[in-house]
Structure formats: C-alpha cells, structure tokens
Design a protein that fits this description.
Elements lengths: L2 H9 L4 H26 L10 H22 L3 H25 L7 H23 L20
Length: 151
C-alpha cells in the first residue's frame, strides 16, 4: 500500500461532516501553533507580568498544538481527547490572565481571544458524541470498514 492510499484508507467511510469537523479542529491547532511561535519569537518578554506557571502554560502550546493537530489528522480518538483538554485548559488560563490579572475594563483583544478559545472548546466538546465513534482507538491496527461504527 502506498503512502497516499494508506492516508486515504484511514479516512475511508468517514462521513464528510466528521471529516470537516476533525479537519477544522486540526487547522485551529495548526493556526494556534503559528500564533504561539510568533508570540514567543517577538522581541521582549512574551508574557509580561504573568506568573511563571501561566507563562509556561502558554509557551507549552508551541509543542502541544502541533501534537494535537497530528493526532487529529491521524484520526485518533486520543486526538479529540487531547484537543478538548488543551482547549479547555487554554480557555481557563486565558480567563485567568484576561479577567483576573488584567485590570483593563471592557473588551480587550485578549478577552476577545479568550471568547474565541472558549467557544472552540465548547464546540469541540459538543461535537464529541458525533465525532468520536468515527475516530480510531490507540494503538491503531488495520484500517478499514471493520473499524467504522456499527460494523
């Protein structure tokens, strides 16, 4: 089996709506990777005034985001679990940073970003019952019709 046919076989029989949901989630994590790399590579302290544990949490997303994107692209149930965990933790961390530590009033870019992350986390959690049956357990064995729901 060639690489292309193995990649295609991994997603054979999966409904388009599930492919779209998982692909969109993976794209969000790829985007997050880029955003966090840009943030960390900008001149100056990346997270000024934030406690070390919170800065480390945000910095860890440079590694966690691409890992989650890869697990989702591989159609692994572990990818959905990790995606939910990372987005919920990120939403909580952003909430703490932008509502507890930030003394600004009103809508700020950080608070708008927090709202987006929170909505993404909620959407991913809500999609779980429809998406998870189509994702594969780890470790992955042969891929094919016998691994699809109801088979």
């Amino acid at each position: 089996m060639t690489t292309t046919s193995a990649r295609t076989a991994r997603w054979d029989g999966v409904p388009r709506r599930v492919r779209l949901a998982v692909g969109s989630a993976a794209a969000v994590f790829v985007y997050g990777t880029v955003v966090h790399i840009v943030h960390l590579s900008a001149p100056g302290e990346p997270y000024p005034g934030m406690p070390g544990w919170l800065a480390a949490s945000f910095a860890s997303l440079v590694a966690l985001d691409p890992l989650v994107a890869g697990l989702l692209a591989l159609r692994l149930r572990l990818g959905h679990t990790a995606a939910c965990a990372v987005l919920v933790a990120d939403a909580l961390a952003n909430g703490y940073a932008h509502y507890w530590l930030d003394t600004a009033t009103g809508l700020t870019p950080g608070r708008a970003g927090h709202a987006v992350v929170t909505l993404l986390a909620a959407a991913l959690l809500a999609a779980g019952p429809a998406v998870r049956p189509w994702l594969l357990q780890w470790p992955v064995g042969p891929v094919g019709p016998a691994r699809t729901p109801g088979a």
